[in-house]
């Protein structure tokens, strides 16, 4: 497989800064067709619609639906000859095994893999605890993510990466304005930023989601990991995706679909008993 045509999507919306940063970097040498949601569809996972509205956009197509809608519509109708799905660049990291099914960015790459098209899900860690979503980020902030994604698109096929992995979950540190010539006015040009080291990782298995009652019939759900994203506090060892990003590295996790089945889960005997006693457990 050689990469010539790329389906670009995301879950932040077709006009998101991170998507445009990737488009500009990839379109210089590849035929890039964007098929992305009309608006923010973050954390929607692999939700899919029965039908969607599609409109032409200067970068390709805007779809009134989910990231998975975009990939299905793209690969089966709008861009059926795409060689690669690139999802992102997401504003906010997608780290840890428990985020893989939740993230619209990652889910887009997963959906592509079921079509037999490899993918790269690209996300950028934005520091700031629970307030990181309040930041308005310029294209320059995505420079590490853009550089890493472009490198993997350029080199991954020749290295045989996509013969052994269905998709790559890439998480990069933010490039703060001080790192980039021109500060906030600079474009997301990887040549203007010293590259962050790249580490091959596995998704962290740490899980700490919390829920608390407000006493009035409501429950607040939160992820405490965002308050522990420092080298001293992060609960993950070297070699995991989250640790890599905290250490200022680009994390690349090679992953596969479908989810693995466990052939010896002790169910064979139960299945036999179910067939002989009507399934009543006696």
From TrEMBL:
It comes from the Archaea. SUPFAM superfamilies: SurE-like. Gene3D superfamilies: Survival protein SurE-like phosphatase/nucleotidase (3.40.1210.10). A divalent metal cation binds at residues 11-12, 42, 90. The keyword Cytoplasm applies. It catalyses: a ribonucleoside 5'-phosphate + H2O = a ribonucleoside + phosphate. One of its GO terms (molecular function) is metal ion binding. It is found in: Cytoplasm. Residues 6-184 form the Survival protein SurE-like phosphatase/nucleotidase domain. The keyword Hydrolase applies. Its EC number is 3.1.3.5. Residues 250-282 are annotated as: Disordered. It is an enzyme of class 3 (hydrolase). Its cofactor is a divalent metal cation. One of its GO terms (cellular component) is cytoplasm. Keywords: Cytoplasm, Hydrolase, Metal-binding, Nucleotide-binding. Binds 1 divalent metal cation per subunit. Its main location: cytoplasm. Nucleotidase that shows phosphatase activity on nucleoside 5'-monophosphates. Belongs to the SurE nucleotidase family. This is 5'-nucleotidase SurE. It comes from Halorubrum yunnanense.
